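Handout for the seminar on molecular recognition.
Each group receives one record of this type.
Step one: identify the two inputs.
Step two: read the structure output and locate the region that could contact zinc ion.
Step three: write two sentences on what you found, then compare them with the reference statements printed after the record.
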Amino acid sequence: MMQHLRFEIRGLVQGVGFRPFVYKLAKKYHLRGVVFNTGDGVIVEVEGSSDELKLFSVALKRNPPSLARIDTIEIHEQEVKHFEGFEILESHHRAKTTSISPDIAVCDACLSEMKDLHNRRFGYYLTNCTECGPRYSIIETLPYDRDLTSMKSFKMCNHCQGEYDDPSNRRYHAQPISCHECGPVLSMFDRELNLIAQGRGVIEKAAQCLKNGEIVALKGIGGFHLLCDATNEQAVSTLRMRKKRPQKPFAVMFSSINQLSKYLCADEKESTWLISKERPIVLVKKRSGTDALLAQNVAPDIDTIGAMVAYTPIHHLLFDFFTSPLVATSANRSDEPIVRNIHELRDRLGGVVDTIVDFNRDIVNTVDDSILQVIQNRSSVLRLGRGYTPFTLKHTICTPLKILAVGGQQKNTIGLAFEDTLILSPHIGDLYSLEGMEYFERTVDTFKRFYDFSPDVIVCDKHPAYATVQWAKNQGVSVITVQHHYAHALACMAEFGLDSQVLAFCFDGTGYGDDGNIWGGEIFIADPTHCERIGHLKEFRLLGGEKAIKESKRVALALLFEMYSLAEIREFDLPFLAHFSHEEINSYYKIWEKRINSPLCSSMGRVFDAMASFCDILHQESYEGETGRRLEELYNPKIQESFDYTIENGIVNLSPMIRDFIRLLHAKEYARVATGFINTIVAIMEEFAGLYPDLPIVLSGGVFQNKTLLSLGVNRLKEKGRTVYFQEQTPINDGGIALGQLYYAHHHIRGTNGG
Ligand code: ZN
Ligand code: ZN
Ligand code: FE
């Protein structure tokens, strides 16, 4: 008997070859009907015998296309309509709640065509198919159709159109496809934007520039990269000088995992991430005892490299002509958003680049490379961007309202919640500049457009000076605030869907505390709607306030002021003290004594800073997170010792530790001090964990970007039989704040509205 079924499919089902997949399946089972995209997913209406419909339904769920993710399928039986055949219909424009596919690295099939002399896409630098290529970065709005992307102005040639229309073709309904004949064109410009060359030949010319030690700006998926030869110390130092970036490590792009393994030692898990279709930057250890060396100034004084493997067709073609790894850093002015067109490039980085390689397919939505590291075979995300965003989480409960979370002030991201869906934006970055704030607002607008979203509620941090907080309060919508470190804990709870109490260690740089002090070494008992601060580092005075946080030596000095008299400090023969003049120490002491611009602070991040200065490795931080990474270099796993500390009423006093290690500092035993310090922090975590033996444990906050601390902490707590969570898919640093805010509001609103 003939039956008619209607499948309503939600999830990541657009722009991933889902409709062709359904088409082929329907043909296979001799079914008739239609498939079409809507704003919230894909609808399939099929008719046939009930047996064949059953087989169809099973296959649909079991083997969706590799890039697809089905969240829900609803199946309804309807009246038979007697379709003639099976067809893919044009999109229906309706509510917009479907997932948007992230941008995916070029696939093997496309690559081999591109390298095949006899293929019409030989050397085609913007090739893609349903399995690969740009998505999020070129989409103006949903549904995902070519005329709503930046490919809309390129009319397909007959060849491409034929592929697009042929259900048996790999490019069937692949929206951004093109070829030499009909696609965007590659152009080379000088820094004044004078056209130098066009077409295929540009790539070989760019390689020549790189060989000459020049800085080349190359348009990628979500923005421009600045490239130079990663083995040419002079080229790297030119880039550092022009970009005014003296120390911060540069990411390096390799042509293949093979080339990478000559320079770095990626373990199995790291390699898997490196060549995954998302192609993130992965932090990987440098290889020692090899002839293949990167210039030492690529990542000065640290032994890991942010590595990635070529992921666009242009990268692959470039490596045909250029055989060394490339520095590939986001084209931006420090801490500003990534540049997305040649005009921004000229205005902001005209003095940095020698040559620009561009093509005339616009980047609609900028998206930075994602960054992660591997901790005990799991990923720990440091930056969420290309390949992963927009990031979607499904929750078991629904919210009746539309919620916008505006995140923190640094490493900002935003989030949306509606119904059972939580969405996290790509990394937006720091919001201290006008450009940063513009990018923030642009992203808010983009996401509102994508999801047809207008917030009923905005959730933000409590810090009165955060730009996002001020912005939130000016939107004429009700505002909910969440304490910064609680939001860190919540972000982790959101990722794992934790609904009941946890013991959370939230260690980071700074955040606004409920008592108006600067927090950052916080221990909570938390659930999605309540949070109790059961422990924290004993406060010390931050000399000069939040603006002084780059001076690690100043924090070290402040910690000594808490414990010793000025006369006693003068007796110490500690290297970091030599970085102050006699008068400076006197005047800081006065500032400390009179409490002038010296807010109280319980920040673990600042203690890490102080430790780097105590150990004489860094007295002034030149980029965020530098002290932690440098301190790790000193860590020696063979050293088991830890130092004394006290805990009184939950307040952790590290003075005994400092008293303990001052003698070691005098003996210049820095490895023992750095190692003992990290061991001490873990011991403190273990002690608190012991007080709450039944609670699962959450670790979150920027300090846990420290691989040594996170691995050791997770290890020790697991050895004691504890369940430990840290974010694997969302940023563990302030990039996760928006997610935590969403999770709170999602529960809070449900609570106050009774469902
Ligand atoms: Zn492909
Ligand atoms: Zn074409
Ligand atoms: Fe934070």
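Reference statements: Residues 670-691 form the longest helix (22 residues). Residues 484, 488, 508, 511, 701-702, 734 surround fe (iii) ion (ligand 3) (CB under 6 Å).
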